[in-house]
């Protein structure tokens, strides 16, 4: 496959995202006033609770089998490594460039979480249908590509709605605390400026009376200290244990909440239905008695990508006006996503292939490498909206990373196919 052909294949999906994002940006302007901030917030909740779970279940239940799950065992490891190395590199960026504290989670999230969903479903099968594709028969290649992409999307969902979800939730809590502290500081009057000679006299008289009362109780205090010290120590110790127990319960509750997020639950159910033949036969196929359920779920899932992309475009308008990220941070995220991570991915996948961990199918190895080369997951934007943190900055990061994605995906795809075939 020639360079320019591959360039068009890799560019078209990203251009589609940019065009739909532009529409969302137009709808969010004051001229139309349709995708206002409150509308985007409620739309995000629908995407999180309904559309994303539907898309994941419909894709997995149809295309993934038990044999696939067993033979593709390295894919979850590979995706985990993209999050691991991306998170480490993002943490280094945060420590060196020191963005605002509530934006640290966003920077790490965009460095570690790639768009393992819609872009994989569009880009990889499209390559199979191009003339001169190095991956063999177009029809067989396309079926395999959809299966790889669906499995990748589901696995990415597990990591995104646990690890990345936790990062963004923590940043949201921190941001709310910062805002509350700022509001509290703004409401506290300046006592030094408000003081007058009369109030100062009253304060002095009050302090003198307090000194007299303290002197009268000095003798009784020394006696009571000995008897009161033991109960106080016991109370403090008991309170500390209760505090640690409550903290442990809170952490456990948070983990359960993240693992039971709607997209994660839908992915688990999709795996179960896809890997269990009799369950799959109930909803998949022309003769399935409950095929209307799968059709309805698929119809809902089809709304995920356009809704998320419209929201992304709507957020772009606010991000261009109010984004507070320094250009150096944006450049660092681009370097992590499109230079460092792909180079790491090539080394890891080639090493795994030489050790015999991978299927000999070159398309499978190509997919594993592409997983290191994707722009940030759009679900990060959904989480930024849900937790009301870094929404403007997230929009700016998306704008630049998706603009660069066209060239980066094309260049690395060419290199991947060259070394694999």
Number of strands: 0
So what's the CATH class? Mainly Alpha
| Tally of individual helices | 18
From the helix content, strand content and strand pairing, which structural class follows?
mainly alpha
Described by strand count, sense and barrel closure, the largest sheet is: none
- How many individual domains? 1
Characterize the overall form.
globular
Kindly, what is the distance between the CA atoms of the first and last residues, rounded to a whole number of angstroms?
11 Å
**Helical residue percent band:** over 70%
Tell me the series of helices and strands, N- to C-terminal.
HHHHHHHHHHHHHHHHHH
Extract low-pLDDT stretches: 195-204, 213-230
What this model shows, in words?
With 421 residues, this protein is mainly alpha-helical. The chain has a single domain, classed as Na+/H+ antiporter like fold (Up-down Bundle). It has 18 helices and no strands. The protein has helices at 3-28, 37-63, 66-71, 74-97, 104-112, 118-128, 138-187, 191-194, 197-216, 218-259, 262-275, 277-283, 291-301, 304-322, 327-354, 362-370, 379-386, 391-420. The longest helix is centred in the middle third of the chain and has 50 residues, at 138-187. The protein is globular, with a radius of gyration of 28 Å. Residues 195-204 and 213-230 have low confidence and may be disordered.
